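S.,

Sequence below, as promised.
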Amino acid sequence: MAILGIGDASEYDTNLNTDWKKVSDMGCRFVILRATTTSFDYKLNKPFSREDTRHFANSQTIAFSGIDRWSYCWFDPRPAITAWEQAQFFIAAVNHAGGPGNHNNRVVLDMEPSDSINYDAAGLVRARAWLDIVSQAGFKPAIYTYPSFLEKFNKFDIAWMKNYELIIAHWEVIVPRVPFPWYPGGQLAWQYTAGMNGDLYGFHSAVPGKTAPRICMAVM
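The prediction came back faster than expected:
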């Protein structure tokens, strides 16, 4: 039986009016919240970790909704910001917000590039270090990624990733393509769309008058 949930919620789409009871009433049983990300300090000329501005408030209000809460780190693979720094900041942010929720201490590492940030082999090593540090702190991390990104790294040793559960993002398909080292159907959750109108689910954009742009629906 599929369980419906919100595959991404962040400061972009969860303002003070977000109605988590409505999210629950619409049938969503879990939500993956962005806990931490990075921004760039132009004075120091380096990236730095920061908490999503809605993570703490979302975590507090979700606790009364009956929805299972997971928190995720958007990981920055650049050498200018260490895996240790990102992991420690993430652990502190999640603990301050009340822990990862009620699902076996599960948290999520978001492993994907951005418009200006790309992974290389060294970036994968740093992501693995983050997973090791967070695991040693007592959390149970899963990896969020998408097939075409990970398939670029098949020439490297990525078999270690199978030690972690997979959340696969593969939109507008009937069945997701699950990359090596996982097996078809072996994913923990599948993010199947990035285009949901979050307003229908009780979310409201941080930009007045716009629909919530970042709501993604998932099943597990």
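The helical segments are 20-25, 55-62, 83-96, 121-136, 147-150.

Coffee later?
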